[in-house]
Amino acid sequence: MGVDAVLRRGTMVYRTMYEGLCIARRVGFPFCYPFLPRFKRKAYKFRTRMMEGVMRADAVILSYPKSGRTWVEVMLSRLFQKRLSLPENEIIDFTDGHRIFSELPRLFFTHDDAHVLVGNEFLPEGGRKGYFAGSRTVLLIRHPLDTAVSMYFQQSKRSGYLEGADMYDFVVGVSGLRGGLPTIIRFMNQWARTISTCENHIISRYEDLRKNPFQNFKNIIEFLNLDFADSEIAEAIQFADFASMKKREAQNFYEGDFRVSTDDPSDENTYKTRRGLIGGYTDYFTEAQTAELERKVSENLSPVFGY
Fold first, then answer.
1. 6 exposure class (CB count in 10 Å sphere: 0-12, 13-18, 19+)
2. DSSP 226-256
3. Neighbours of 57 (CB within 10 A)
4. Which of 9, 190, 225, 251 counts the highest number of beta carbons within 10 A?
5. pLDDT tens sequence across 265-285
6. DSSP-derived secondary structure letter, 156
7. Alpha carbons 197 and 205: distance in angstroms, whole number
């Protein structure tokens, strides 16, 4: 038996094991329910659905929050909106959309352990990632300091759960809240070690997408085995241009879709499309603070990502 055959058999064993685990979780939930606090019930159900979503998808888009996922989702939606004559003000549900439009791929967007369930309560970290075995996975990443600053504004301005919290304290993690630099580095390091679990995968950096959106988005399209002409890809990128998305958000173009809407168009920091800068984190800290934060990244983050 060749190496490829052995690997495929191992993948099948992993998938079968986790499919059985999902069934067991669903069957066992009614028995666990009375003994679980409300948050743990939510986390239990969410993780079960997430595992099933990963295993049922044609491909997975995996990222830490605030790493460019919505931007990629809008571009992918635009491609199929044009092809299938769908409304342009509705981001396509790639998880279940194939039930109505068979031409749509089953794409599952996930933050894995970095999902915010309620307030500033994240899905509990840890656990094996065998349910990703055999998955075609795009790992979207962004510089962890830009991600941390963006996460601060997400949780304070958009979600309203960090009122009074100092940004530097949040980013370095002294507040005790998840979402800052320590959480982001743990997530990225875990996936630096674990990404090989996915039979097929690519790593796409936000910075590369911003600098050369056509080539890097085209790489994602080709990896997902989607067939679109260069002109279609270029049009989707133009539609999802940062300035255009920000203008639509201010105008409530997506009719209240919380992912791309703001409650206060006069406050830039409440926008989903807030700034989108590369290295913009330096605007919020002193030189000494910036140097200390960059040292933490350099010393603790896996070199796999090139930061």
1. exposed
2. ----HHHHHHHHHHT-HHHHHHHHHTTTTTT
3. 20
4. 190
5. 666 666 666 677 889 999 999
6. I
7. 19
Which CATH number fits the domain that encloses residue 200? 3.40.50.300
Instruction: Render pLDDT for 89-108 as a digit per residue (tens, 0 to 9).
Output: 888 888 888 888 889 999 99
Any residues with CB less than 8 A from the CB of 22 and at least 6 apart, and which?
A: 48, 51, 52, 55, 131
Q: Which two tokens stand for residue 241?
A: 């241009």
**0.90 cut: is pTM over it?**
no
Structural domain includes residue 2: no
Residue found by looking up tokens 């979780």 in the block: 25
Q: How many CB atoms are located within 10 Å of the residue 117 CB?
A: 15
Range of 53-62, 112-121, 128-137 with top mean pLDDT: 53-62
134 occurs within a structural domain: yes
State the number of CA atoms in the 13 A half-sphere of 254 facing the CB.
Answer: 24
1 falls within a domain = no
Residues 6+ apart with CB under 8 A from 301: 144, 185, 188, 189, 307
Number of domains in the chain: 1
- The full 3-state SS of 30-75, as one line of letters, equals HHHHHHCCHHHHHHHHHHHHHHHHHHHCCEEEEECCCCCHHHHHHH
